[in-house]
Amino acid sequence: MDQATQHESKVSRRLTEETAPEVCDLIYLPRLASFSAAFPYLTEVNEAHLLMLHSRKLVSDTIAQKLASAILQMDRDGPEQVKLDPQREDAYFNYEAHLISLTEPDVGGRLHTARSRNDILATIDRLVARDQVITLLDTLAILRQTVLEQAAKYVETVMPGYTHLQPAQPMTYGFYLAGIAQALERDSNRLVQAYEHINLSPLGAGAFAGTPFEIDRKETARLLGFPGVIDNTLDAVASRDFIFEIMAALTLLATTWSRIAQDYFVWSTDEFGLIHFSDSVAGTSSIMPQKKNPVVLEYLKGRAGKVLGLFTGAMASLKGTNFSHTGDANRESIAGFAEMIQECQYGLELLNLVIHNAAPREQDMLNRARRNFCSATDLADALVSKADMSFRQAHHVVGAVVREAMDAHHNADEITAEMVNRAAHMQTGTSTMLSIDTVLTSLDPLLSVKKRERGGPAPASVNNTIEHGREILTRDQKQNASRKTMLSESRMQRRKQTTELANL
């Protein structure tokens, strides 16, 4: 080999110089770090493509048998047996080089007939995303189950509800959790909708303009467990919007868990004292011996910000790209996808731990609801229903009562009928006589909760929500199990056909 040949590109005779060390070290070598993760998916794509080429007589029986044997040998040996060379740019060229070494150039090189790295990468991205969504849906189902179980346990645990972090109206801890369950249900639905967009095959699109070879795209789709193909070959390789849908859904999910963590963060403080966590989910201080720090809650809130940042970075990378295959559109824009998946997997597991460990201080919750004026709306409602007062007038009357009580340093459960009737006369100029029983009943948070049906915190209403949530969860779990079964069966069938081809 002469000196000039030694310095040519290892993947193209168009390029007369080998790749610069900086490009290898800073671009290609970091990409090769994910070779082990991509290896099984590249094997799947190669199996499906080979079987299709053979069935369409685009490769001979002899060539197909040698290729099938080599693909299976590489799968048995594992990715660690493939020598990774950044001068070959990426996973595909390194895989192909090893395949050729196991066969010969005229055999190994034929597997690339009627395809491009572009449609291979697009297919692998969909295979990866499909598996990751299935795993996330399973983890979300576990979390939803925990939330529903805890909601059912605390259906009658009355506590103050807050708006603007100020006492607002009585609710129950079970009602709060039932609301979270519905939010997580929507998070699951968004991932399911993304899955439907993922689950189409781009293989056979080539670089972007298809191929003149008479391939069967529907056959490779079937072999890979896809129910159909992306018809337009440009769209097939240009678009990663299925990944951005997942990232958007996960950003919403992370925002949900961060808001939940913030509630627990506040409620578990000494000043609120509504929720207690076991020591197993807490940390301490290096200097202050009394400290019990909510490290898991802080982690969840902080990592939600990281998830948002990954999504923002992805969209920023995408927005200025052409609608075709480019490195910034289809590689750099999704560079943080795997990290986001991992962060969300961890976040869901930790949130499950938090909700399972969160123990409401039930008596403290009830006492706080009795004292902190969160039943004031019920007193205004009583003036409307018992004294035939407009709600706006009632609002002014009760506001004056609350002001008087606060000025006198009285709690809500110390409000008297005389205070209400006096304020009514001062605000409206008419005599309104509510009995003490009516006043006390209106200000009782236990009774307030029981009156609020039709989706409110009344135990019967919350139990209905929980039961409906369980039905939907069971349905979702069955559907995800079906997805896993279908993909497992397609993998087994494809491997069986490849093995039969290798044994011709």
From TrEMBL:
Q: Which PANTHER family match?
A: ARGININOSUCCINATE LYASE
Kindly list the biological process annotations in GO that this record carries.
L-arginine biosynthetic process via ornithine
MF-aspect GO terms: argininosuccinate lyase activity
What pathway annotation does it carry? Amino-acid biosynthesis; L-arginine biosynthesis; L-arginine from L-ornithine and carbamoyl phosphate: step 3/3
Task: State the reactions this protein catalyses.
Answer: 2-(N(omega)-L-arginino)succinate = fumarate + L-arginine
Q: What is its EC number?
A: 4.3.2.1
Bilayer-spanning residue ranges: none
- Give the main EC class: lyase
Q: Where is the Fumarate lyase N-terminal domain?
A: 80-309
User: Corresponding gene?
Assistant: argH2
Cited NCBIfam families: argH
State the name under which the record lists this protein.
Argininosuccinate lyase
Species this protein is from? Advenella mimigardefordensis (strain DSM 17166 / LMG 22922 / DPN7)
A Pfam family name for this chain? Answer: Lyase_1
